[in-house]
Design brief:
heterodimer, A: seven-stranded mixed sheet, seven-stranded antiparallel sheet, B: mainly alpha
Chain lengths: 497, 143
């Protein structure tokens, strides 16, 4: 066991950890040792080849197949230098004021989050793509949504030099997506922050972190770790946990913090989602161009959000209900498919929480509540209307049985698509917006941290990822994670410089 | 091409998987011998890193899936005619027992993984995404 001394240790290098690392650059320049420990490897852009299984295996926890405890939902979590910012689509929205007010965290106000998230929107080149770069899949969503009475909005995205590979969720092969792997981490490293990849943090104690460095597999992608493989103890004045929702609270629970922090692991939300496809009579551009350029926000009125999307053949096949010739007919029409992702704005409830098993691995308990099922049903009906209005001949809707709706059934959408068809284990539900488990609040009785990410009762320990969210954000979370991480870094800088 | 697995989980169930694949995939002849071998290698590679408990569950479920039709038809899944195999799986998909639904979901997911991750299949369905994006699609970037 080797021992390393550091002033600050950051666990995780995604939207939260990468942001803290960059904001601590002034401390690193002053000679403070700032370490970032990242579970995933560092990839070269040219290694990101768009091959579905190979990339899922390299970039995602459990190859993208991490399941909730009851096996009813798949959770997508990136593992790489840059965390999930390597595999998201770069959609960058500001937190809604009403949500931050509902969170009701003393010392946290919307104006402050907005100010900080605007800073990162600028730093990470967030902007709307020009009309000539939008593909048919996105444009049909706009046409259909307007015709069906909805108000589509364009996603600002953080790309620079996007070539329209459509492969965002498998890592951009062109280095266009401006995640923390392209912006914050290189800036941090240039200032002297050390990033150590292939680093599994297996336990934390009082001002101490235990780390296991994995060797690079002989035929694996990515670079070897910056440290020799083996076991390390890092002694430090401060620890920032930013390993994501499936990293932070399971690590704390496994390390024995649960007895003094009764809310640890609680408040889990994730925007449960699934895909609908509509089949058009003629080919459209769908697997070229940025995949996610528009959304319809019905969070306030009906607790759902619709987003354009385009997935890869296996993920699409997995998400379509059923099998055999009906299923194959949709898959065989791939060049004519329009896709919409429907997301429910779930609320934190006692049953939904993150835990750790004996080995420290995350376990997620999730129950689909009637409001969530109702939201998914309303979202599915709305998406079906958009497809029909956009000219689709047939629709695959997971909440219909049988799941295929023909154009002639447009008048029967509400009858055909119904919550009674929501069968967990048959409908493929997935989520990528994992939130909660280390929520902010007033005290150890109602939360895990204060409004600055300081863990109650442990002044040396902070959280700086989406675990901090006391409840669902109801939009894509990355800019808000960065804004909260910025606050965490500010608090550390006040102490160490 | 996926790596061969030294301690295979699925190869003892090759017959059951093929019987399932004949109704889950686009048709009984969706894959030729080489295609099946590629699919099996992809599936085996996907299962290999899973915890022993998951592998055990998968083995158990495949065994169960094969014998369950005995109760209603007197035949194992592998011996059922194709149409009856399909209707048996359809009934399982709507089962009131969540573990049966989830198990079937897992097996069909594996089969789709083995099938739709094949280059020939992706080409056949018309999937064309590639790193070059717009430039390649319009012919400008073809090298």
């Amino acid at each position: 066991m080797k021992t390393v001394i550091a002033d600050v240790v950051i666990v995780g290098s995604g939207a939260g950890g990468g942001t803290v690392a960059k904001e601590l650059a002034p401390a690193a320049k002053q000679g403070k040792r700032v370490l970032v420990l990242e579970r995933g490897p560092r990839f070269q852009d040219q290694e990101l080849n768009g091959r579905e299984t190979e990339m899922a295996d390299a970039l995602y926890l459990d190859a993208g197949g991490f399941l909730t405890a009851d096996g009813a939902m798949t959770l997508a979590v990136g593992q790489a230098y840059g965390g999930s910012t390597v595999v998201y689509t770069g959609t960058s929205l500001h937190a809604p004021g009403r949500v931050i007010e509902e969170w009701n965290v003393p010392g946290l106000d919307h104006a402050d989050i907005l100010k900080r998230s605007r800073k990162y929107a600028e730093e990470n080149n967030v902007h709307s793509l020009p009309a000539e770069e939008l593909n048919d899949n996105n444009n049909l969503f706009v046409t259909g949504a307007r015709a069906a009475g909805f108000t589509p909005e364009q996603f600002p995205v953080n790309v620079k030099g996007c070539r329209g590979s459509s492969l965002c969720n498998l890592g951009c092969p062109n280095g266009a997506k401006q995640g923390t792997h392209k912006v914050q981490l290189p800036l941090a490293e240039a200032a002297g922050v050390e990033v150590v990849t292939r680093a599994d943090v297996v336990g934390i104690g009082d001002r101490m972190v235990r780390v296991r460095i994995r060797p690079k597999p002989d035929d694996g992608l990515g670079e070897p770790s910056e440290w020799e493989p083996g076991e390390y103890t890092v002694k430090t004045d401060g620890v920032v946990l930013a390993g994501g929702v499936l990293g932070t609270s399971p690590l704390l629970l496994h390390s024995g913090f649960g007895s003094r922090l009764p809310r640890l692991g609680h408040g889990f939300t994730c925007h449960p989602a699934f895909i609908l496809v509509g089949e058009h009579p003629a080919p459209i551009t769908n697997d070229v161009g940025h995949p996610k350029s528009f959304f319809v926000d019905r969070a306030v009125e009906e607790r759902f959000v619709l987003e354009t999307c385009m997935y890869f053949p296996f993920v699409t096949a997995k998400n379509l209900t059923g099998f055999g010739p009906d299923h194959a007919r949709f898959m065989g029409a791939f060049p004519r498919l329009q896709m919409i992702l429907v997301l429910a704005c779930d609320k934190a409830i006692p049953q939904n929480r993150v835990a750790a098993d004996r080995s420290g691995a995350p376990v997620v308990h999730y129950t689909f509540t009637p409001p969530v099922v109702d939201a998914l049903t309303a979202a599915t009906r709305a998406a079906a209307r958009i497809f029909m209005a956009a000219g689709a001949d047939r629709i695959h809707a997971p909440l219909a049985d049988p799941p295929v709706l023909e154009r002639g059934e447009a008048e029967h959408i509400d009858e055909r698509i119904h919550s009674r068809h929501f069968l967990p284990g048959t409908v493929s539900v997935s989520a990528a917006h994992l939130m909660g488990g280390g929520g902010m609040g007033r005290s150890g009785q109602d939360s895990v941290t204060d409004a600055w990410g300081r863990v109650h009762g442990h002044p040396w320990l902070r959280i700086a990822d989406a675990s901090l969210f006391p409840d669902s954000l109801e939009i894509n979370p990355y800019l808000t994670i960065m804004a909260l991480a910025d606050r965490v870094a500010e608090g550390i800088l006040e102490e160490v410089t | 091409m996926a790596r061969p697995e030294p301690d295979p989980v699925l190869s003892p169930f090759r017959g059951i998987l093929r019987a399932l694949g004949e109704v889950v995939l686009p048709g009984p002849n969706a894959l030729d011998q080489a295609g099946w071998e590629e699919a099996e290698a992809i599936m085996e590679a996907a299962v290999a890193p899973r915890p022993p408990s998951v592998k055990k569950q998968l083995r158990l479920f495949l065994r169960l899936l094969n014998v369950l039709p005995l109760l209603t038809t007197g035949r194992t899944l592998g011996r059922l005619p194709e149409k009856k195999r399909a209707s048996f799986l359809a009934s399982l998909q709507r089962s009131r027992l969540a573990p049966l639904r989830r198990g079937l979901w897992g097996v069909r997911t594996l089969l789709f993984m083995g099938y739709y991750n094949q280059e020939a299949v992706r080409n056949e369905i018309g999937y064309r995404a590639e790193p070059g994006g717009w430039a390649v699609r319009s012919g400008e970037g073809v090298s």
